[in-house]
Amino acid sequence: MTDSLDRRVSLALLIALALAAHPAAAEDDQSSALGFERTPPRLAFTDGEVSYWRPGDEDWTAARVNTPLAEGDELSTGAGANLELQIGARAFMRAGEATQLALGSLEPDYLKLEVLNGTAALDVRELGSGQTFEIDTPNAAFTIERPGYYRIEVADDATKFTTRRGGQAVVQTKGGLPSSVAANEQLEVRGTDEPVLASYGAPSLDDWDRWNYSRSDRQNAPQSARYVPAGVYGAGDLDDYGAWRTVPAYGSVWVPRVAVGWAPYSAGRWIDDPYYGWTWIDDAPWGWAPFHYGRWVRVGGYWGWAPGPRVVRAYYSPALVAFYSSPSVSVSVSFGTPYLGWVALGWGEPVVPWWGPRGCRGAPRWTGWGGPRVVNNVVIHNHVHIDARHIKHHEHWGRHGAAVAVERGRFGRGSVKEARIARFDSAKLAPVHGRDLGVRPDRKARIASEPRGTRPSREIRERRTVTRENIGAPRGEARAKREAQVERSGNERRMRAAPAAPPTRMARAERSDRNERTERRAPAARPEPAKRERTRERAPAPPSSTRARSRDVTRERTQTRERRSSVSEAPRGNGNRRRESSAAPSAPKPRAQAAPRARENTRERARPRTERRERAAEPARQPRQESPRGSSRRERTQEREPTAPRGEKGGSSQGQDGRGDGGGWGSRRG
């Protein structure tokens, strides 16, 4: 006994030191709440006959308090009955007698409710940033983006919508433009295809309105709100069923009034939630907050619920338990059948999610927990990575009466009270690491109760409501984001399906860019005549004159080289003066520019006399220009191969006809 007490005192001291060093140990989890984003609406209160239906179920069943609701769920009230849904930290939807509600859409910042018949009220004391409520009726759709009190009455062919306490809304009918509903105003809409709108002042409060006001006041300002983090659903239910105490090791602890031998997660049932999978529904009327937030502790022989230090945001979990199962066949033989057990998480212990996407399932998490982190009764630091396989022990698993076990085949198929095993050896069960519990849900796991409920009339069930979707109005931020992603993916598919541009176009564009860059660096590019034109211009010469033409071309090349070297050294003659007068004094003409004239002269001499006469009448061609690189090469060739002068006849004739120096581009073709 003394060793156990010393162990508890040591653990309490470690926890106190951890709290002092890290007062908000889970704050870093708030930015990575993968798998914890949604807080489902809950059925918080029922009075009278209330029926419930989930898509896929065969029939309606009796509604059960603390049921988490999902998209498509429907609720119906009988004569003299009332129900309450909590859809926000300080927002409630209530329905009177003979009313049918449905959840059309459920997203973090967008909630759509459908009122098919009867009377309902939406009491919003606080609205989150960017959060939107939509109420759809058979006659019109109403959008609510600010706190207030809103009452909806749906009859056979008309809908009345009343705003109070500063509430305002936007109404839109089928085929009509949106219009606003001011504060303290009642709007009546008659008809669906061609609706008629009439506006009046808000009528006086009746008994049902006053009941809504008083219930909201009590739910929004409970005593328990001083101890739990903001955003915890169901905090208002704790005041009537327990008391708060201060424990040095754990801070504020709520102690419920329960029977002897009671343990957390022992009176209720498991259901298969469409989003979170296996979810706990407790039988107690206060059984929402203590089973989806915080941790359970054992102090002085009684159970207490510790919400832990304050956090920036409280995150919902379907259950905060650790699962244990039969690890081998030998255990099944000793027990007769395989078992599946669970126990409430102790102070600071992580939850290993069995729900959520990849990256969430099977990874120990402290999301929403603001106290120290404890693994295997040891306080760890925030940056230490923990593998679920290293978790071998939980604080409450070996405690007498704390663990609950059922036959694996009966898990999720009815009340735990009826299926619970009275005695079992907890040492023969091993922790489940969260990825898969090994139990497949069936139809019975989808519903929260067995008794049948009352099915509404077929006429009411088949009514269609006017929504912002079918009239083209904007939706919530999350819904618009999802539509943008779908549209973006559709555009990508269309782009992939469209034929690609021919590669030759891209090659031409690249070639043109390269040509532009070349023109900036080098002189103007010399245009090259088409090959076919050159072929047509050349006249076939007799075979006997081929050797003579070759001698003339060689003689002309030699004269051109001699003339070019004499220009730079000897005084210039009459032909040189004529070339100097045609060139600008500030920018002397490069020698390479005269090469095309020599080429033309050479080609003229190589043709018969009759053809030269015919070509003299044709207009002169555009001279070709060479880059300086080609000129310097020819100059180096002239220096290496000096030739003896052959006379001045060729040079004087070229100087007088004004065609410039020979050699160059034309001489190379010869």
Produce the secondary structure layout.
Blueprint: H1 2-21, E1 42-47, E2 50-53, E3 61-62, E4 74-77, E5 82-88, E6 91-95, E7 100-107, E8 110-124, E9 132-136, E10 140-144, E11 148-154, E12 158-164, E13 169-173, E14 179-181, E15 185-190, E16 196-201, H2 207-220, E17 242-247, E18 251-256, E19 268-273, E20 277-282, H3 289-292, E21 295-299, E22 302-306, E23 321-325, H4 329-335, E24 339-344, E25 373-375, E26 378-380, E27 404-407, H5 416-419, E28 430-431, H6 458-461, H7 477-497, H8 503-521, H9 531-537, H10 546-569, H11 574-582, H12 595-606, H13 609-616, H14 628-640, H15 649-657, H16 664-669
Parallel strand pairs: 8-9
Antiparallel strand pairs: 1-5, 2-3, 2-4, 4-7, 5-6, 6-8, 7-8, 8-11, 9-10, 10-13, 11-12, 12-15, 13-14, 15-16, 17-18, 19-20, 21-22, 23-24, 23-28, 24-27, 25-26
Helix pairs in contact: 10-12, 11-15
Summarize, please:
With 670 residues, the chain is of the alpha+beta class. The strands form 6 sheets. It has a 16-stranded mixed sheet that branches. The protein has a 4-stranded antiparallel sheet with strand order 27-24-23-28, with no helix packed on it.
Q: Can you describe what's shown?
A:
The chain is of the alpha+beta class and 670 residues long. Helix content is 27%, strand content 23%. The strands form six sheets. It has a 16-stranded mixed sheet that branches. Helix 10 packs antiparallel against helix 12 and helix 11 packs parallel to helix 15 (649-657).
